[in-house]
């Protein structure tokens, strides 16, 4: 794949959370731009406008590849009809209504801490499809020590006991019918962007447009979508 890789962090994080992944992608020979936005003080659309202004110096025909974590995937989807996107990789994206966001939004101190975008994630996102080819990486660690909200979610039963999730986003919430490849990594939502297997999968996708032998067949995305459809 050819283009500048645009890295977008998730809710409650900053561009620093994607800095190590950015350095690894640069070391593999790709041009990158590591962007930030005030995730806890804005809506998803406002975040997209912030990112759009940061990219405004690029020529219309300049090819871009999105690399997102969590809510950054929705920011990218909001911008899908703008700029010249050639594809994307999404790490733990809440592509459907988020159960964890529902729990946070119903807890006043957490709702205040996470800001207006969190409340939006409670509902099915009204965003365009992500750019294709689209690879989605899902974490499978469940609740972990490095993801404190996941402890509360586990105690409140946010996810089903046998549900695949990274402590924040589940497999059924992450999948999207536009996905062309899907992979699962035993990592938490908080740290998945720094996991060696995630980095390897991302670089492979950027080079080839797919996850290759370490990736999962796209048919598994269809199966997860079917699970999502029966749960809503």
Structural class: alpha/beta
Name the beta content range: 15-25%
SS field, number of helical segments: 10
Please give the alpha-carbon distance between the first and last residues: 36 Å
SSE arrangement, N to C: EHEHEHEHHHEHHEHH
Can you give the helix content as a percent range?
A: 25-40%
Strand order of the largest sheet: 2-1-3-4-5-6
The gross shape turns out to be globular
pLDDT < 50 stretches? 227-232
Largest sheet, if any? 6 strands, parallel
Let me know the average pLDDT.
88
Verbal overview:
Helix 2 crosses helix 3. The C terminus is likely disordered. The protein starts with a strand and ends with a helix. It contains ten helices and six strands. Strands 2-1-3-4-5-6 form a six-stranded parallel sheet, with helices on both faces. The protein is 37% helix and 15% strand. The chain is α/β, with parallel strands linked by helices and 232 residues long.
Write the layout of secondary structure elements.
Layout: E1 4-8, H1 19-27, E2 32-35, H2 44-54, E3 63-69, H3 72-78, E4 84-91, H4 99-105, H5 108-114, H6 116-120, E5 134-139, H7 148-156, H8 171-174, E6 181-185, H9 196-208, H10 218-231
Parallel strand pairs: 1-2, 1-3, 3-4, 4-5, 5-6
